[in-house]
Amino acid sequence: MNQHFSGEEKIGSIVSVFPGASHLFKEVQIDFCCGGDRSLLEAIRQKNRDEHEILRRLNESFAEMKNKAEQGGTDWREEPIADLIDYIVNHHHAYLRKELPLLSEFITKVLRVHGGDHIELSLLHKRFHQMKIELDQHLIAEEEALFPLLKQYASRPVPEKHEQVIKSLRELETDHSAVGYYLREMRTITNGYALPPEACRTYTVAFHKLVELESDLFQHIHLENNILFPRIENQEVR
Ligand SMILES: [Fe+2]
Ligand SMILES: [Fe+2]
């Protein structure tokens, strides 16, 4: 494991080595799932942030994590690929299947009650549901076709399947970029999920749940884009 980060590392690999970095990246709005193959310095400069400050905080929290007793987390770069796929489905897909319908109800109710005073809620409702449709279809595609194909390929990386597998990975990455776009849009529309003073309970819960959804999707897409897909791509064809 690295002793510290210089900033030249790719964002995705920093989060792979140190998942806790995701909190800092979220705070300073550096996209670590879809924009994971840029170097950290590149991303900081694009955002016009103070690179010394961000690197200092990153390295401090990294050192703190290392000082803590053995962390119980799983290193998904090392575990069998089939286990990683099962974890993504049982953990992140299950979360979406439970939360997306609930959020749909909440956001619809908030639009009905507060839409008159807050015109942005109608665009939020639209973007959320566009993302929900994309995600519903994306989960079906992953679970029914692509993950079984990836599992099969991981156990037997035959040359005949190589092209099909790589094409599937690129399609999934395109879907992920679309999700990243909707998440950014929703954050902008709501001014960072800022609640108005008169927000009722449903309004509050809906925004808290949207923030949680964003975190879960970042982690989910990170596991797929930055860990699962490169592991599949780097399998030696035989
Ligand atoms: Fe997924
Ligand atoms: Fe995915």
Summarize this structure briefly.
About 70% of the residues lie in helices and about 0% in strands. With about 240 residues, the chain is an all-alpha fold.
The coarse overall form would be: globular
Strand content: under 5%
Q: How many angstroms does the end-to-end distance come to? A: 30 Å
**Separate helix tally:** 8
**How many individual β-strands?**
0
What is the typical, i.e. mean, pLDDT? 92
Report on the biggest sheet.
Answer: none
H-E order: HHHHHHHH
Which stretches of 5+ consecutive residues score pLDDT under 50? none
As a percent range, the share of helical residues equals over 70%
Structural write-up:
The protein has 238 residues and is mostly helical. The chain has 2 domains: 11-67; 81-233, no CATH class. It is built from 8 helices and no strands. It has helices at 11-17, 21-27, 40-46, 51-67, 81-114, 120-155, 159-189, 201-233. Helix 5 packs antiparallel against helix 6 (120-155). The longest helix has 36 residues, at 120-155. It is globular and about 60 Å long. It starts with 10 loop residues before the first helix and ends in a 5-residue tail after the last helix. The mean pLDDT is 92. One fe (ii) ion binds at residues 138, 142, 172, 176, 224.
Name a few traits of the molecule.
mainly alpha, 2 domains, single chain, binds fe (ii) ion, 238 residues, 72% helix
Secondary structure elements and pairings:
Elements: H1 11-17, H2 21-27, H3 40-46, H4 51-67, H5 81-114, H6 120-155, H7 159-189, H8 201-233
Helix pairs in contact: 1-8, 5-6, 5-8, 6-7, 7-8
The structure holds fe (ii) ion (2 copies).
Residues 88, 92-93, 142, 220, 224 line the site of one fe (ii) ion.
